[in-house]
Design goal:
Mean pLDDT: 81
Order of helices and strands: EEHHHEEEHHHH
Structural class: mainly alpha
Number of helices: 7
Number of domains: 1
Number of strands: 5
Low-confidence stretches: 1-10, 75-86
Oligomer: single chain
Shape: globular
Amino acid sequence: MFKTMSTNNSTYLYPNYLKAAKKKLDACDLLISKCVDLTEKEEKCICHELYYLSGYIIEGFCVYSVYKILGWKDKEIPINSKGGYEYDEFAERNAISFFKSGHTSNGTEIQVIEGHVYNKYVDSIRKTHKFDGLPYFSSAPFSKIEVDSLIRNWNPNIRYDYNENSIIIKHANLSNIKSIIDWCKKIYSHITTNIG
């Protein structure tokens, strides 16, 4: 079993990130298929929520890929006496930790997965795995600049942003959301076919 963390006597296995992301992807795909004859207000509302979920899909795929590609060992992250999480060999070797920021022994900044900022740690998997032709994970561009902007600027606080003048909200239209979900399907296919 592949363990990533242990909290309240329960252990979270990193393959669950892939399963959870796939579940959200399927739900988003279903919701998009039901988006017919919507008013402008309904479309904005559903697109906002789909955009919010899409970030967690991408994050789930990224976290799973980080642990799988970078060789997470079958062990839990121990809690130190101060209540934080100790760095382990994985964090030292890869400059990635689930819980705690800091630096490796050679001074490299450790990227924190728990922070929901997948664009900061996706570089680690780009260095060791080729995502040929997949925008964002490779040098391949998106067909729409707005889609690239939505993906690069996603953060969990988007759930609080209902300002219709927000650039992000303006770009989160049904066409762009469909493009993101289609791209997520390609990522899932690549992961299951090439990463395992």
